[in-house]
Amino acid sequence: MSATLLAFPGLSAAGLLGGEQLLHATPRLGIDWIPLVRRGLPAASLDALVRQTRIARTDLAEALAIPERTLARRKREGQLSPEESAKLVRLARTVERAEEVFEDAAAALAWLRQDNAALGGVTPLSLLDTDLGADAVLDTLGRIEHGVFA
Questions:
Q1: Which of the residues 34, 50, 58, 101 has the least number of beta carbons within 10 Å of its own beta carbon?
Q2: CA-to-CA dists, residue 106 to 4, 11, 21, 131, angstroms
Q3: Contact 14, 23 (CB under 8 A)
Q4: Of 62, 32, 77, nearest in space to 133 by CA
Q5: C-alpha closest to that of 145 among 100, 105, 87, 88
Q6: Whose CA is closest to 80, among 52, 54, 47?
Q7: DSSP letter string over 66-132?
Q8: Which tens digit of pLDDT belongs to each residue from 109-127?
Q9: What mean pLDDT is reported for the chain?
């Protein structure tokens, strides 16, 4: 499968996770996500993210630090746990931010998948399994946006 995002300029994290149709809400700010995460996102949000970003399920499971078998079980159950939901939202918000910085969906996902010297030589996607890693990725995106070598 192609490693490019579908061409939806300005796609939001909420859109990546299925939008109003799946989330039954339109979160825009970080605080808007809190009740959704606490309740647990619908498992269909995983499919929406995979469909729109074309991130392979194996790569998604690794980026979220959630075993593929657990993701398959959640799909059958229909609901993610709050912790799993938080990880998925973190990933979607990071994809959204990368797209804002690069102003191109394909370039954003390519950047997330490439080894990055500013991030210790690993891919940004591989760091999204922790808050600290995600912070480092977002910091690097901020430096790129402001023209600071990253």
A1: 58
A2: 5, 12, 25, 24
A3: yes
A4: 62
A5: 100
A6: 47
A7: --HHHHHHHHHHTB--HHHHHHHHHHHHHHHHHHHHHT-HHHHHHHHHS-BGGGTTB-GGGGTTSHH
A8: 999 999 999 999 999 999 9
A9: 91
Q: How far apart are CA 114 and CA 18, in angstroms?
A: 26
R_g over Cα of the chain: 14
Identity at 134, one-letter amino acid code: A
Tens-place pLDDT, residues 8-38:
445 799 999 999 999 999 998 999 999 999 9
Q: The tokens 């910091």 sit on which residue? A: 139
**Rounded Cα gap, residues 2 and 18, in angstroms:** 20
127 Cβ partners below 8 Å, 6+ apart? 119, 133, 134, 136, 137
pTM: 0.89
